[in-house]
Write a structure and sequence with these properties.
- The protein is mainly alpha-helical.
- The protein has one domain.
- It has 9 helices and no strands.
- The longest helix has 33 residues.
């Protein structure tokens, strides 16, 4: 849930512009998330079911339940819309379906599996609690990506997560700069950036980085270029000329 934005000191016109800026910022962030979630699905689709890839993404990016739901829905909608046009998505969906079928059929190999398979029925088990289901999912995931065979998969997931975090930092910085444009006539620059951080409810570790990145970009645009420092490095002189040697003739000894 986004934090409330203090607006008592803002004029009505600026408040309206601020509300629009918040909506635009949230939409741009969602678009960035969906783009990178789809990239992860495409990258690991041969090894991880589609639903699991989305769960990995949501967990690695520390998304709230509501954010995860929206991003998952949009990613699946994108796949559905482009399934006919792009060849990669139908293959991923087919693999995901096979993986889900394999998981569903797994109890048949147990003690009562033979009977259930023969009769074509299976006992209906109650759905596990969400927390338990999540723990089981990531426990299975750790088992799947552990060991020599899956070291490469684990590393690619970590690299993809790092790339996504950097892309989100850039997006946050661009959004914060847009907030500065809206608010700078009524608030100081640091206050305008803080309004963005509060409005988007950024976690502390991200908020500090976004704060300094945004102000640094403003500094690059508005501060005069730095002059050459008074203390200059000594000029590099060419090789010193070697003194000419003169021959002094001494007198002959007596």
């Amino acid at each position: 849930m986004k934090a409330p934005v203090p607006s008592k000191t803002l004029s009505a016109a600026v408040r309206r512009r601020l509300e629009l800026a918040i909506a635009v910022a949230e939409e741009r962030l969602l678009a960035t998330h969906v783009e990178h979630a789809l990239g992860l699905i495409e990258m690991v689709g041969d090894e991880v079911p589609l639903e699991t890839a989305l769960e990995i993404y949501n967990r690695l990016l520390h998304l709230s339940g509501e954010e995860a739901r929206i991003i998952t829905t949009r990613a699946l909608a994108h796949i559905g819309e482009h399934a006919v046009e792009a060849e990669v998505w139908p293959r991923l969906m087919a693999r995901s379906s096979k993986s889900a079928d394999a998981v569903a059929a797994a109890p048949a190999s147990g003690r009562d599996g033979g009977k259930a398979a023969k009769e074509g029925t299976a006992d209906v088990q109650p759905a596990p609690p969400v927390a338990e289901k999540g723990r089981a999912l990531f426990s299975n995931l750790r088992q799947r990506i552990r060991g020599r065979v899956n070291d490469d998969l684990r590393q690619r997931i970590e690299l993809a997560a790092a790339r996504t975090e950097v892309a989100l930092l850039r997006r946050h910085t661009d959004n914060a700069l847009a907030f500065v444009d809206v608010l700078e006539e009524e608030l100081s620059l640091p206050e305008a950036v803080q309004i963005y951080i509060q409005a988007l409810d950024l976690r502390e570790s991200i908020a500090e980085v976004v704060y300094y990145l945004t102000l640094a970009q403003i500094a690059d645009r508005r501060l005069p270029p730095r002059r050459a420092t008074a203390r200059r490095e000594p000029a590099v002189a060419g090789p010193a000329a070697r003194p000419e040697l003169s021959v002094v003739e001494g007198g002959k000894g007596g």
